[in-house]
Amino acid sequence: MSITRCASSSILPLLLAVAAIIISSSSVHSQQFQQPPPSQPLGDVLFQLLDKDKNQKVTLDEVNSQLNMLEMMFNPVEGAGGDDSGNDEANEYKQLLSGVKSAAPTLFNLLDVNNNQSLSKSELAHVTKFEKALKKGGGMRELLRDVFSILDENADELLSVEEIMDGSANDQVITKLSTRVHELFPLRSDADELKDFVTSTIESIAGDGAVVDKESVAKGMKWVDDDGDGHISKKEVAKYYNLAGKKFMEISKTIKQLGPMLAMFGGMDMNGGGGDGFKMDL
Fold first, then answer.
1. Cα angle at 109 between 113 and 3, to 5 degrees?
2. Most exposed of 153, 220, 244, 282 (fewest Cβ within 10 Å)?
3. Which residues contact 219 (CB under 8 A, 6 or more apart)?
4. Which of 55, 102, 96 is nearest to 73 (CA)?
5. What pLDDT is recorded for position 125?
């Protein structure tokens, strides 16, 4: 489940988190443009949007600045009169923002290949590679299959609480997972440098800051365990991966269409479609 979680609750949502920072604050500005510009690579557009001072690097402070802007935007929505639709939307964004704020440092450090506390255009290009991996033949489907098989110790095509816990504590398993992730996403010079990330991804199933034990892991599995049998099947993984993947592709399309123009305003909130055709079966 590690990278199943990694696809649905770590790498993918982490990247979704950065996208959400960009798209959550420009509903006013986005209405001013009728014709989107030609599409650029996703990583390039993110670089334009996040590099607020235009010094050719993105700092964590710049990312946090976008997050703070979002927080200020929720208050007017909450105070609006009429029906509860505004409040519902505000609460949805607040939940997303909470995840973004906790995930942003992890994603930032993962992308910061040379560890210089800033992200270059080439480092953010890894986001483009991730987007391509989600498409048919891009490699993400095969990665998830392999991750599932590595964690599935008894080969019964189900992941149990014990298998997930064993995976987080088994160096051989972590090595295999890190190697496989590194093959598709060479974010470091060698796979060993991804071990801590992979381990923390598995442990995140228990919840942020939670003790990794049977109770916390079982609780964390429930969001994927649709049939409530205490296990995670390939079908369940595929379902939630497809949902997250489709959302990522929708966000990606909108960012690439409107991002270059909206970067001029320093705040961005774009709502659009683009996830059509995203489908993966494990």
1. 95
2. 153
3. 206, 207
4. 96
5. 95
What's CA 263's distance to the chain center, in Å? Answer: 21
Residue with tokens 């060993």, as numbered in its chain = 192
Inter-residue contact 144 to 237 (CB < 8 Å)? yes
Q: C-alpha angle 185/104/236, rounded to 5°? A: 60
What is the 3-class SS of the chain, one letter each residue?
A: CHHHHHHHHHHHHHHHHHHHHHHCCCHHHHCCCCCCCCCCCHHHHHHHHHCCCCCCCECHHHHHHHHHHHHHHHHHHHHCCCCCHHHHHHHHHHHHHHHHHHHHHHHHHHHCCCCCCCECHHHHHHHHHHHHHHCCCCCHHHHHHHHHHHHCCCCCCEECHHHHHHHHHCHHHHHHHHHHHHHHCCCCCCHHHHHHHHHHHHHHHHCCCCCCCHHHHHHHHCCCCCCCCCCEEHHHHHHHHHHHHHHHHHHHHHHHHHHHHHHHHCCCCCCCCCCCCCCCCC
Question: Which pLDDT tens digit goes with each residue over 47-105?
Answer: 988 898 899 999 999 988 877 766 666 555 444 444 555 566 566 556 666 667 777 88
By C-alpha distance, which of 142, 103, 114, 138 is closest to 15? 103
Residue 277 has a CB neighbour count (10 Å cut-off) of: 9
C-alpha span between 49 and 252 (Å, rounded): 13
Task: Tell me if 51 sits within 8 A of 6, measured CB to CB.
Answer: no
